[in-house]
Amino acid sequence: MVRHEDCIHLTAIMGLPEWRVLTERQRNFLGKYIAEGMTTGRYDAVEACKIAYPNTKYAELRAYQLLGNKRLRRVLDIHFQRSAMDSLLADLHRVIKRSLRRGSKQPRVNPDLTTAIQFFEKHAGQTAEK
User: Fold this and answer.
1) Is 82 within 8 Å of 93 (Cβ atoms)?
2) What is the distance between the alpha carbons of residues 125 and 122, in angstroms, rounded to a whole number?
3) Is residue 89 within 8 Å of 120, Cβ to Cβ?
4) Residue 92 · residue 64 · CB < 8 Å
5) Which of 87, 63, 67, 4 is nearest to 39 (CA)?
6) CA-to-CA distance for 63 and 42, rounded, in angstroms?
């Protein structure tokens, strides 16, 4: 659960260069996403997407794509006060989980994946399977 008192407010973020490089729709999406999260404690990307992109057919997919955008993720890192290392470890964890899932019953673990898992576990202080 995110404690909103630990987050950077939207008004402060709007003055940053990371905010200014976003498109108007991206800013609208993040504005709705952050404002709702700060107000209710629940960050709902799908609802924010429906408001920022009202003509999109697949709001869930579009919201997922938006949250994966590196520029939008950078703004969210600032909002949630995540360090570059925290952000890197979160991305690495997602990639590891996805790679392990692809192999279903018997995942293909190659040397690169093994190195990524070892790095993640060393720096995150948790196992990659979580």
Assistant:
1) no
2) 6
3) yes
4) no
5) 4
6) 15
Give the tens place of pLDDT for each residue, 9-32.
Answer: 999 999 999 999 999 999 999 999
On the 0-12 / 13-18 / 19+ scale of CB atoms within 10 A, 66 is buried
Q: What is the DSSP string of 48-109?
A: HHHHHSTT-S-HHHHHHHHHH-HHHHHHHHHHHT--HHHHHHHHHHHHHHHHHHHTTTS---
- Residue holding tokens 């948790």? 126
pLDDT tens digits along 60-81 = 999 999 998 989 999 999 999 9
